[in-house]
Amino acid sequence: MSRLLLLLLCLFSVFDCDGQNLLVNGNFESYTNCPATQGQLNRTSPWYNPTSSSPDYFNECSSGSVDVPQNMWGSQTGRSGSGYTGVATYHFSANAREYITQQLNSPLVSGINYYLEFFVSLADTSSDATDGLGIYISQNAITGGGTNLPYIPQIRQPDGVAITDKVGWTKISGFYSASGGEKFITIGNFYPDSLTTIVPSDPTGQWTAYYYIDDVLLIPDSLVSVNKKDRPHPVILQEGKHLSIRLQKSTVGHLKIYQLDGKLIREEEINGSGTVNLESYSTGIYFLVVESAGEMFTRRVFID
Predict the structure, then answer these.
(1) Measuring CA to CA, which residue among 124, 145, 10 is closest to residue 69?
(2) Which DSSP string do the residues of 28-86 spell out, in sequence order?
(3) What is the DSSP pairing of strand 208-220 with strand 113-122?
(4) Do residues 283 and 238 make contact, with C-beta atoms less than 8 angstroms apart?
(5) Which of 1, 181, 224, 245 is least surrounded, with the fewest CB atoms within 10 Å of its CB?
């Protein structure tokens, strides 16, 4: 391994922009034990199941029903790694739902706006697709039985737009202004069947709508908004094969992209902000390095 690649790997352990995520284990890569069967969400701590239903944890370290990419619900690779979770947003049993929850290490701050996003993919064997997926943010832990939790999510996909993509990952995102003291986020479909758009997907599939979930992000919106002044570091957001990079106002940055073997394949200046097209890049992992205001910032980029 080259000295340059070793340096990049070391930098990622300290400066990776994913470290700004206020959630722990938002990409579900960390686990206490490899999942062995369905219903073992608790193995990807600190995520847990808030109801009597059974959301699932999938990882490449497993085999059989909860493996990645092939598992009991079909085939799907992780959006950014080897693990993801899955929940049912609709089932032939009336209002049956599954959710995943996490308690934050510290509560949200009153008056601060936050940006949240997560990615979902409809499982191959789902008989139906739905809308309704969202995030509910609360001060206290919420619990329930196996049916829909009676709360209105602050972040959700558009009404009436069922997510039908079984190949790629669809982003659900939005902004939230904190009241102060919020410590829990819960993801799932909070609406009953009567208020959920249900679209047939596969008449031979299992009688449910089941979605994989990956890459949950919660950050202050000062790391996203182009109108904020004196941002402490660049904002680097990925949308498919396009990167959006925003620097501190009126600063010029230097961008470098390396292959996994440490070979430099791209170098350019960024004046304030810019978009990087990665359409020509092969599937794999790349290292992104941005130098700005005398500091170096790094990020892993996954191309699928």
Answers:
(1) 124
(2) S---SS---STT-GGGSTT-B--BSS--EEEETT--GGG-SSEETTEE---SSSSEEEE
(3) antiparallel
(4) no
(5) 1
Encoded amino acid at 197, one letter: T
- Count how many residues are written for the chain: 304
- What mean pLDDT comes out for the span 246-252? 71
Q: Are 76 and 211 in contact (CB under 8 A)?
A: no
The pLDDT tens digits of the residues spanning 183-224 come to 999 999 999 999 999 999 998 888 999 999 999 999 887 666
Amino acid of residue 6: L
- In tens, the pLDDT along 82-116 reads 999 999 999 998 999 999 999 998 999 998 889 99
Residue 282 in tokens? 């092969």
- Which residue, 43, 87, 80, 86, is CA-closest to 62? 43
pTM confidence score: 0.71
Q: Of the given ranges (29-33, 46-50, 135-139), which has the lowest mean pLDDT?
A: 29-33
182 token code pair = 């919020």
Tokens of 122: 């409809």
Closest CA to 83 of 64, 57, 63: 57
State the DSSP H helix or E strand holding residue 258, giving kind and residue range, or none if neither.
strand 252-258
